[in-house]
Amino acid sequence: MDGPRFLSARVRGLSAFSGVPTSASLARDPSSVSPVLLHLNECPYPPSPRVVDAIGKAAAGVNRYGDPRPDDLAAALSRRTGVPASNIVVGNGSDEVLALVPMMALNPGDSAVMPTPSFPRYRIGTTIMGAQPRMVRNLPDGRNDVSGLLAAIDASTKVVFACTPNNPSGAPLARADLDALVHGVPDDVLLVMDEAYFEFDAAEGGEGALSALRERRGPWLSTRTLSKAYALAGLRIGYGLASSEELALGLVRVKLNFNLSSLSVVAAMAALEDEAYAQFCMARTIAERARVAAALRALGYPTLPSRANFLSFDCRVNSLPLILGLAKQGVFIREWRDPGFETYVRMTIGLPQENDRTLQLLSGVFAQAPVCA
Question: How far apart are alpha carbons 79 and 77 in whole angstroms?
Answer without folding.
Answer: 5
